[in-house]
Fold DUF4962 domain-containing protein.
Amino acid sequence: MKKFIYLSIISAFLISCGNDDAPEETQNVAPTTPTLVAPVNNKLCTNNAVSFQWEVSADSNGDPIIYQIQVAKDKDFTHIVMTAESSATYQNFTLEKATAYYWRVKSTDNEKLSSTYSTIYSFYTSGDGVVNYLPFAPDLVSPELNSVLNATTAKLEWTAKDVDTKDVLVYDVYFGTTNPPTEKIGVDQSTSTLDVNIVSSKEYFWKVVVKDDKGGETIGQTWRFRTN
């Protein structure tokens, strides 16, 4: 009986010591978001054979990384024209001429954990005999997408670019509680801000149409925010 007790005590001691020596499990962390390099934002590419480049992402676990690039004709990426996955930090695509494109990249490790997508860059491919390029789709400044406001007024703010740097841009603004918004509350305005009245417990939608002084126009995506 004593021998059995001694063996039980020794076994329990060895088990407890074994747990102390067990290595701690390392938590996997997603790689960092890639930084885009080329083509630079809002660039006019003189060739439709475009070389894309981005910086190497870091992975604190030292995992191998695969990059996914998406090229689309809209900022919502609902019309993706090119996509590819590779361990390289570059990709070459031949695209249509005289067309605006938007591109982004994300990184994924071998445990299938992904970064967020990079900042979206835009560019135009040049076209034969083109005398005017349409403005790029506008970028949202505020209110942030899907944000919640506690206020009775909101300042709508955006930015817009055009590769024809001498073009003068004006804006039509649509705003309301329907999606897509149909009420035009700003017409041919030269400033990229507009104050609007809002009420509580509503969801608002708005979009901007960017127009240049040569008759070209680009319809922006629909943005939204809510009020408490």
